[in-house]
Design brief:
It comes from Fusarium oxysporum (Fusarium vascular wilt). This is Reverse transcriptase. Helices cover 51% and strands 0% of the residues. It is mainly α and 230 residues long. The chain folds into two domains: 2-59, no CATH class; 96-222, no CATH class. The two termini are 33 Å apart. Residues 87-93 have low confidence and may be disordered.
């Protein structure tokens, strides 16, 4: 019953990632001219074949030595925290993490970074930090630290790199509109949208704070990244 109530009022509930996935699956079914109706059935009602099948699958999933075919979001999140914690204890990070930051921002280290974070609230700052360091909850990074089995994006169009997530993934076209409104002709330029200096920028370069703000809002709207950092 509580699950149905959460789905009916998604904005007021926790577990937003799971709820969003449910809505995405429902939308796919509707596009095929299917109707979706969700009902609650008491667990003790064995007259329904679905109830019997649900119990059978539950028993199967809890057998000794049984592992899920795919980890639920909460399990992946726990695995990620453990992996990052272990890396910190070892005082080392995956190879090329620092290279990513230098590639998108040739002005590092620089005073401009303070201006970038000054425009952010606490949770926004956590998201911006992930975007600028590459240490984000996207599959390319998760795969590097052993928290995901593959670096492929769920859209199926390629690895979920930062460029793919911000500019190409077909799942986030609507959320990406604010970034397009800032500078359509700069879409695809990581440095511009993350407040970094590129090789083509001159001596008078300054970060475009409006672009940075739009990028952070996009990332938060997708729900793909942790707003607390990794």
């Amino acid at each position: 019953q509580s699950s149905l109530k959460a789905i009916a009022r998604p904005q007021q509930q926790s577990g937003q990632t799971s709820i969003r996935q449910i809505y995405e699956h429902i939308e796919r079914l509707r596009k095929g001219n299917n109707r979706v109706k969700m009902i609650w059935v008491p667990s003790r009602d064995d007259d329904l074949s679905m109830s019997r099948e649900a119990k059978r699958q539950a028993k199967k999933a809890t057998r000794a030595g049984c592992t899920p075919q795919s980890l639920p979001y909460q399990a992946r999140s726990t695995r990620l925290r453990l992996a990052v914690s272990q890396l910190h204890q070892q005082r080392k990070l995956p190879n090329n993490v620092g290279n990513y930051s230098k590639r998108i921002d040739r002005a590092l280290p620089g005073k401009h970074t303070q201006a970038l974070y000054d425009i952010c609230k606490r949770r926004e700052a956590g998201v911006l930090s992930q975007l600028r360091t590459g240490m984000a909850r996207i599959n390319s990074y998760l795969n590097k630290i052993g928290a995901a089995e593959s670096d492929m994006c769920e859209c199926g169009c390629g690895p979920e790199t930062m460029e793919h997530f911000l500019f190409r993934c077909t799942r986030w076209e609507a959320e990406r509109e604010a970034m397009r409104r800032v500078r359509q002709n700069m879409m695809g330029n990581l440095s511009f949208f993350l407040g970094g200096k590129s090789a083509s920028d001159g001596a008078k370069w300054r970060p475009n704070l409006e672009a940075v703000r739009a990028t952070v809002k996009f990332a938060m709207a997708t729900g793909r990244l942790s707003q607390e950092g990794v």
